[in-house]
């Protein structure tokens, strides 16, 4: 036993409730050990029964029996500790700042515990009676503290053992019948347990707040990482596109220069050919001129006349009157090169628009029309996905949400953050308005549609006149008439963009918007116009671009 105890430490024999060496140690079903009195009192106060160490909850209160083995080990350890304390007291002499034992005479040893009943502090040796004597074992021991007098009522010189809930102060027994006789009291231990529970709850809540903020930090860091990945990917894509465009421009420039220089080389080659031919004629003409000059100088009549027949015939010469070297024409050369470059750029732009459309389509949301906002001449389909103008005004209540003059309708869904996208089929229509509006827009009387009034939209009039209601309106020039219009909103970015979903082309974008309210998708099929504009606006399922 003694050999084994030498391998054990004090912590292994301390009750985690009273922080002292076990007295009548018992074991809970979960395997932890406590003083029998400590765990019994703990379970008398705390319901349901649970282990103070591991917090395991027991459905029925366990029947506790003294663990004889641990009890013997604790007793052996206590005896060994006392012997060690007696033989090496110099090692436990109270140092400055430490609590001295009140019983020691001469050299004061370091106190381990203070008794709130005896109002004295004890070293290991003098603490023994409180650990072994039944009367003293009921005393309340705490870790050694100085100024035990501070635990006494200064007015009545009695132990502060109650808590006045009315005045929120510690009082003695006499206080309850004198100065605080009408107040509400509880034992210090009870108030301690309540306050400790509150502190533990507050600590748990604080830890929860800390954990939530740590998770938020991780979330923000992850968002930054994702944002950086998106930025890097966007930069790489942009660099790739601009590199291709730069190479295309350089290639077109080189081809233009080669074309012009080739024309110039042909001109120079033609000129060289003419010059060579002319120089050849000049050489032959000079030769004949020399012969003629030599013969004309002869004074021998007979020789001149006899030589004339043998004189070489005049060399054949070309009529150079109409011959000229005209500079090559470069008209249209640069224009054709630029046109070809424009074709290449258009192909690149189409790829960009297709990629952009594919990106925004990932934010597609389900949208349905809200009958409570629809003008009374509008006809909505049963699935609330289509709307068109009718000639008959329906008998519907004029609620605050309903448009009463303009033939408009909003979606049921609203958005106050993030990004969203939806598509609307406009095929067969001559007039329509589409976009988003803020929740507080005016819905009665005539409406001036502009961002200042809470409307971000584009319009079609007379089959081919497109405009953005930007206040003032912006005329839009489109290469083709869209049959399906996609609407994309980035709330935080302040962006509303419109796309030709079939041609994968950007129609128009409102940028730098400031959204502070809910946004609702907006639809206006415009007037029927005698059947010319009878086709409905149809909220279409998003067909993701490939």
Question: What number is the mean pLDDT?
Answer: 87
Strand content: 15-25%
Spans of at least 5 consecutive residues with low confidence: 1-6
Biggest sheet: strands side by side, in what order? 9-10-21-12-17-18-19
Supply Rg: 52 Å
CATH topology category name of the largest domain: Jelly Rolls
Order of helices and strands: HEEHHEEHHEEEHEHHHEEEEEEEEEEEEE
Helical residues, percent: 25-40%
The CATH superfamily name of the largest domain is: SPRY domain
What's the total count of β strands? 21
- Tally of individual domains: 4
Coarse morphology: elongated
Give the count of helical stretches.
9
* The first-level CATH class name of the largest domain: Mainly Beta
Q: Which short descriptors sum up this protein?
A:
elongated, 21 strands, seven-stranded antiparallel sheet, Herpes Virus-1, disordered N terminus, alpha+beta, 546 residues, six-stranded antiparallel sheet, 36% helix
Please characterize this protein's 3D structure.
- The chain is elongated.
- The N terminus is likely disordered.
- The protein has 546 residues and is an alpha+beta fold.
- 19% of the residues are buried.
- It has 4 domains: 87 residues, Herpes Virus-1; 32 residues, no CATH class; 117 residues; 170 residues, SPRY domain (Jelly Rolls, Sandwich), CATH 2.60.120.920.
- Helix 7 runs antiparallel to helix 9.
């Amino acid at each position: 036993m003694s050999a084994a105890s030498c391998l054990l430490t004090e912590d292994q024999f301390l009750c985690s409730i009273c922080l002292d060496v076990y007295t009548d140690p018992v074991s809970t079903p979960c395997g932890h050990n406590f003083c029998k009195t400590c765990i019994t009192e703990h379970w008398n106060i705390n319901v349901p029964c649970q282990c103070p160490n591991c917090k395991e909850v027991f459905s029925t209160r366990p029947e506790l029996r003294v663990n004889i083995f641990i009890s013997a080990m604790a007793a052996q350890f206590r005896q060994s500790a006392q012997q060690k304390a007696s033989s090496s007291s110099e090692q436990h002499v109270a140092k400055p700042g430490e609590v001295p034992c009140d019983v020691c005479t001469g050299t004061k040893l370091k106190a381990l515990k203070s008794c709130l009943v005896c109002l004295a502090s004890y070293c290991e040796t003098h603490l023994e009676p409180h650990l072994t004597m039944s009367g003293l074992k009921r005393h309340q021991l705490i870790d050694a503290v100085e100024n035990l007098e501070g635990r006494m009522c200064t007015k009545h010189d009695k132990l502060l053992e109650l808590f006045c809930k009315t005045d929120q102060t510690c009082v003695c027994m006499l206080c309850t019948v004198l100065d605080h006789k009408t107040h509400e009291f509880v034992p210090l231990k009870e108030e301690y347990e309540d306050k400790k529970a509150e502190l533990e709850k507050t600590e748990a809540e604080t830890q929860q707040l800390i954990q939530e903020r740590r998770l938020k930090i991780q979330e923000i860091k992850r968002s930054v990482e994702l944002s950086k990945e998106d930025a890097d990917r966007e930069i790489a894509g942009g660099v790739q596109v601009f590199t291709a465009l730069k190479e295309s421009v350089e290639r077109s420039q080189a081809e233009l220069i080669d074309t012009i220089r080739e024309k110039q080389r042909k001109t120079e080659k033609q000129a060289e050919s003419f010059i060579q031919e002319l120089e050849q004629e000049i050489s032959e003409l000079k030769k004949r001129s020399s012969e003629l000059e030599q013969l004309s100088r002869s004074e021998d009549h007979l020789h001149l006349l006899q030589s004339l027949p043998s004189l070489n015939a005049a060399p054949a010469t070309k009529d150079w009157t109409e011959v000229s070297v005209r500079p090559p024409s470069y008209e249209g050369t640069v224009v054709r090169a630029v046109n070809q470059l424009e074709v290449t750029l258009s192909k690149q732009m189409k790829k960009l628009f297709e990629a952009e459309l594919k990106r925004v389509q990932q934010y597609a949301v389900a949208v349905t029309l809200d009958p409570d906002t629809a003008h009374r001449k509008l006809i909505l389909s049963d699935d609330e996905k289509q709307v068109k103008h009718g000639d008959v005004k329906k008998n519907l209540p004029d609620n605050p949400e309903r448009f009463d003059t303009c033939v408009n309708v909003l979606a049921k869904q609203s958005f106050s953050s993030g990004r969203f996208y939806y598509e609307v089929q406009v095929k067969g229509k001559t007039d329509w308005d589409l976009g988003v509006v803020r929740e507080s827009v005016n819905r009665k009387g005539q409406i001036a549609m502009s961002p200042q009034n809470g409307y971000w939209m584009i319009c079609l009039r007379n089959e081919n006149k497109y405009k953005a209601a930007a206040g003032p309106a912006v005329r839009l020039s489109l290469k083709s008439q869209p049959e399906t219009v996609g609407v994309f909103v980035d709330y935080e970015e302040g962006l509303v963009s419109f796309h030709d979903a079939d041609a994968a082309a950007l129609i128009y974008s409102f940028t730098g918007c400031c959204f502070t309210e809910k946004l609702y998708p907006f639809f206006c099929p415009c007037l029927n116009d005698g059947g010319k504009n009878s086709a409905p606006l149809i909220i279409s399922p998003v067909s993701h671009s490939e």
